[in-house]
Design brief:
alpha+beta, Arc Repressor Mutant, subunit A, 3 domains, 3-stranded antiparallel β-sheet, two-stranded antiparallel sheet, about 15% strand
C-alpha cells in the first residue's frame, strides 16, 4: 500500500513530533503513531505492532491492543485482511474525530435505556437491591458496537464490571468479532467468526460470546453443528490448559459455503433430513 498524507478527510497526517499530536493521551500513543506513520508503505500486522511495543516500550500485548484502539478515536487505522492476518494502515484523521472526543449518550437516551429499572443480566433493581444501574453496550465499542438503542442495555455496576473483565480476555480478536457481529442470525454470526479466522482455531468461549451478541443463545453448539447441513466442514480439538488444568475446546472451519438467499435458519430447516421445522 502506498502511503498517502492526504488522509481520509483530506487533512494531511501530522508528522511524528508535530504539535497536532498533542491531542493523543500519552507519549506512548504518540510513539505508536510514529511507528504506524513510518510503516505507511508497508502496514504492520498486529503481531509486528506488539513486538515493537514490547521491544521499545516494554508493554504487554493487551496494553498495546488497547492503545491501538485508542488511536482510532483520532485516526483511521482500519484492520485490512492480508493473507491469514490483518494489517493496520494509518490512512488519515478519523472523520469528525480530530479532537478525540467521543460524543456521549444524550440524557434522553440514557433515561430510555435505564427505564426498565432492572439489570438485564442479574435482574436486580435499585429500589429492592440498592444497586446502581449503568448503560452498557451489548457489543462493546471496541468491537465495533454503536450507540444505537438496540445495542444498549441496563446493567448493574457489578455485572458491568464482570462483563468488561470477561470480554477483555477476547480483546485481541476485536477485528474478527467486529466482522461477525453484524449478521442478524446466530448461525451467521458463528459462521462469519469462523470465516474471519481463515482456518485458524477459534476458542469455544469466543464463539459463544459472538453467537449471543444480539440475543442469548443457550445452545450455540447446536447452531454450529447445523452449519454442516449447509455444506460446511467444521473440526474441533480439545486442549488441556497446563495452568488451570481445564480442558478447552477449539473449532475451525475447514470449508464453508456462501450463505443462502433469505433466512439461514429456514434453509437449515429445509435441509434437515429429520424434517424438523422448528430449530430452537
Amino acid at each position: 500500500m502506498a502511503g498517502d498524507d492526504s488522509g481520509m478527510n483530506d487533512e494531511p497526517l501530522p508528522q511524528p513530533g508535530s504539535p497536532d499530536l498533542d491531542v493523543l493521551p500519552t507519549e506512548v500513543h504518540r510513539l505508536l503513531y510514529a511507528y504506524l506513520y513510518e510503516r505507511r508503505d508497508n502496514p504492520p500486522t498486529m503481531r509486528e505492532i506488539r513486538a515493537y511495543a514490547a521491544d521499545t516500550l516494554g508493554e504487554a500485548h493487551a496494553q498495546t491492543d488497547r492503545r491501538v484502539r485508542d488511536l482510532r478515536d483520532y485516526f483511521d487505522v482500519p484492520a485490512v485482511r492480508s493473507g491469514r492476518e490483518h494489517v493496520y494502515p494509518l490512512t488519515g484523521w478519523s472523520k469528525g474525530k480530530k479532537s478525540g472526543q467521543r460524543k456521549g449518550l444524550s440524557t434522553r437516551l440514557r433515561a430510555e435505556v435505564l427505564a426498565p429499572q432492572r439489570c438485564a443480566q442479574c435482574g436486580r433493581t435499585p429500589l429492592t437491591h440498592e444497586v446502581v444501574l449503568v448503560v452498557d453496550h451489548k457489543l462493546p465499542r471496541e468491537w465495533g458496537g454503536t450507540d444505537d438503542i438496540d445495542n444498549l442495555q441496563p446493567l448493574c455496576e457489578e455485572c458491568n464490571a464482570g462483563k468488561k473483565s470477561f470480554y477483555a480476555t477476547y480483546d485481541e480478536y476485536a477485528d474478527e468479532i467486529a466482522a461477525a457481529s453484524m449478521h442478524p442470525e446466530p448461525h451467521g454470526r458463528i459462521g462469519e467468526l469462523l470465516k474471519a479466522f481463515r482456518g485458524d482455531w477459534v476458542p469455544s468461549g469466543l464463539i459463544g460470546v459472538v453467537a449471543s451478541i444480539q440475543q442469548y443463545q443457550e445452545d450455540w453448539h447446536k447452531r454450529m453443528r447445523e452449519l454442516r447441513l449447509l455444506g460446511w466442514k467444521i473440526s474441533y480439538k480439545r486442549v488441556k490448559d497446563p495452568q488451570t488444568g481445564r480442558t478447552n475446546t477449539w473449532y475451525r472451519a475447514e470449508h464453508w459455503e456462501p450463505w443462502p438467499d433469505g433466512s439461514v435458519r429456514s434453509e437449515i430447516a429445509r435441509r434437515d433430513p429429520s424434517n424438523r421445522h422448528n430449530i430452537r
